[in-house]
Specification:
- The chain has 10 helices and no strands.
- The protein is mainly alpha-helical.
- The relative contact order is 0.11.
Length: about 210
């Protein structure tokens, strides 16, 4: 007989509601009352777990990292033998996630930090941790791909991993502006071509100053 599955508590329900509602409406437009209604909990339960909405926002960023971290850790791109193929496979996996409506595939922390970077430092820092921690999951493969190709460029695996996230977050902004995923898919294709050419060239890119 299978072990009984624990029912989610009020805190978990609120965090799950935050993930969907904030991506759909934005952080500022999402109210505590709406979160409670979506989670099916009382307002008293909300304030039992969170002092205010900003505290929930910080917790939601951590919850997002846990949920998405498990998704990416189990993704098939890790199975490629060539580390560059793993990096390119990561982008292919991100493209495959462009399903459903815009709120279904855009990034919670990218959405929150755009609204709160100046007004809610705790949320900004939580979003930074989430994005930067996710970027770090690519660094080992980028470094291994550089080593396999005897590359010694003037950029680091960390900077490239963060650049990849910058392109993805920008792609999500364009998807919101245009109301659909195609522009995000196109951006990911351009990024894939850029990385392919970058590693083919040994990490050397033209100097924008022409020196």
């Amino acid at each position: 007989m299978p072990a009984p599955t624990a029912k989610p508590n009020a805190r978990s329900k609120l965090l799950d509601a935050a993930l969907s509602m904030i991506r759909a409406k934005g952080y500022s437009a999402t109210t505590v009352d709406e979160l409670c209604a979506a989670a099916g909990v009382t307002k008293g339960a909300f304030f039992h777990h969170f002092r205010n909405k900003d505290e929930l926002g910080v917790a939601a960023a951590g919850h997002w990292s846990e949920v998405t971290g498990a998704l990416f850790a189990a993704a098939p791109y890790h199975d490629h033998a060539d580390p560059l193929d793993r990096v390119l496979g990561y982008l292919a996996f991100r493209k495959a996630l462009l399903q459903g409506g815009v709120p279904d595939f855009t990034c919670l922390v990218g959405t929150m930090v755009q609204e709160s970077y100046e007004t809610a430092p705790a949320i900004r820092d939580a979003c930074d941790r989430s994005i930067s921690t996710h970027a770090k999951t690519l660094e080992a493969d980028i470094e291994a791909a550089m080593r396999d190709r005897a590359m010694s460029p003037d950029w680091t695996p960390e900077s490239l991993a963060l650049h990849i996230q910058a392109v993805l977050q920008g792609a999500f902004i364009l998807a919101k502006a245009k109301g659909g995923p195609q522009v995000a898919a196109d951006s990911m294709d351009h990024l894939t071509r850029y990385l392919t050419l970058l590693f083919r060239a040994g990490g050397n890119t033209p100097n924008p100053k022409g020196d």
